[in-house]
Amino acid sequence: MGTAFAAQAQPVSDATPSNTGVTLAKSVAIQAGDQATLMGANVPVRVNVVLKMHNQTELQQVAEQVRAHARNPLTDNDLAARYLPSRADATRVYNFLHSNGFSQIYVSKDNMIVTAWGTAANVQSAFKTHLYGFRRGKQAGIANADPVSIPQSLSDVISAVHGLRSFQERGVSGAKIAATTQGNVTWKGKGAPGTQSTAGVVACRECVHAPTDFPALYGASNLAPANNQVVAVIGVGDQRNTNYLYQTWASNYGFGFIPLDVIYPTGYTQGDYEAQTEAVLDVDAVATMTGGLQKIAFYSAPSTNLDDELAAVTAAVNDNRSTISLSFAATCDSDIGQDLRNSWDQELWAAVAKGITVFSITQDYGGYPGCSNNESSTGFPGSSPYVVSVGASTLYNTVDSYSTYDHETLWTGSESGPAATETRPYYQNGVASIVGSMRSTPDFVMDGDPNSGLWIVTGGYDSSGTYQTQWAVYGGTSLAAPLLAGTYARLLQSGIPPYFWQQTFYDIGAGQVNRTSGDCLTCYNFLTGGSNGAYSVIPGQFNQASGWGSWNAGALATGMQFQR
């Protein structure tokens, strides 16, 4: 199939932009089979300009020391004094964007990201590139037709310009609806789904679960509720209905309502409900596992583009949220440009250095998700060594109780495997013979098979404009990550200090495998089998399909106390 090029829109100008400044990114070369349409001058475009951090190598070393418990986390003042760009630097970028016609300009609290809304004409004026509406296989979005450049006068402060290559750098939700809910799933009893007594013989082993089941299944019900904790959830779009859907769900199960604080760090489009179900799943899953919170802080990005999500994560880091759950990811980390990886890395260094833990999904497309290199892959940013990478399992209860754990296998949709460009972090050195030279994902799994998933309340507007709600069952890695984040908040409530805990997690796992850690021989639920097509579970040890397995929260809380 030949190259398809349709010049259906009026270009910004017929002249090739002059790149007399500093080039930050090459143009996207059109390949056979691509579809590219030159964007019109007035087409809306949003950019995220990332500023340069000072003393990056030193900050990376500090982050490593914090997660190895060799030093205390940094304060905001520590970061600002030595590592972050100044407000004057951010003002220079703000003025540059404003002078080129951008509006709705947001500067992050740490001065790391300046977000601006504009048009294709504004992009050409500021960054000297035309833009395509672009499709390559399953990837669709926009692409820069010319090199992206900035003035020489700003080369000392600007690190990258994102938002001009969204076709390749777009995250997607990891939420999957249960196939059975499209047929004849029945509730366990009257009232809310899943509220039937667990006494006697249950109807299934691979069961759809009520939220009241999960804390007991994962050993968290004997821990105190996380009433003094705040969990940050990263979402997308207009969240005006999320509170209502969450309250409807919580009241049906008799849960105390956790305050939900919705923040739009870089604006949003009213009526954009594309990710409403993902938002409800995340909030419900966090509430399920925590047993209570001071609040859920929901940071909503204006799109699923990974640079927009980075701006939302940055806002949560700036607000010192010790626990962050992220359920959007690119399917193939191998397709992500190094400039975007670098932008994520420097923000995640700051998060780790402050003692903040980010839980991020691997994604839901199995061992071979259709990446450009036709190899197995994992999701991004779940491939980063500075997040806890979360895959998904199929959870089985016992024959006599919906809320009693029996075993888990790997959910076939769970992505896993080595990162494309991230080398093996030191905390994986103990499993180097298994993972090889690259960062292996996931670190852990939790339930994510939609057919053993969670009942939630979803909603939407019908053709008459009336808002309708319904019960549905959802899973995916988007269930697994907030379940784990909520469990972690409960560990913090039990007295575990907020650190980025990878080294301890891996030490505990090694002790359990070798039976050398008497306080933590049941901390993890090693999976009993399963495969995603590329990797298979090896029972009783760390493996590239399921990492260390899932958490037995009560035992893990005790074990982590001994690791301090």
Automatic annotation (TrEMBL):
Which Pfam families has this protein been placed in?
A: Peptidase_S8, Pro-kuma_activ
Q: Active site located where?
A: 278, 282, 478
Co-factor(s):
Ca(2+)
> Which domain of life does the UniProt lineage start with?
Bacteria
Alphabetically list the UniProt keywords. Answer: Calcium, Hydrolase, Metal-binding, Protease, Serine protease, Zymogen
For this protein, the record's InterPro entries field holds: Peptidase_S8/S53_dom, Peptidase_S8/S53_dom_sf, S53_propep, Sedolisin_dom, Tripeptidyl-peptidase_I
Q: Per its UniProt record, what PROSITE patterns does this chain match? A: SEDOLISIN (PS51695)
Ranges for domain Peptidase S53 come to 208-563
Q: Which protein is depicted?
A: Sedolisin
Species name: Dyella acidisoli
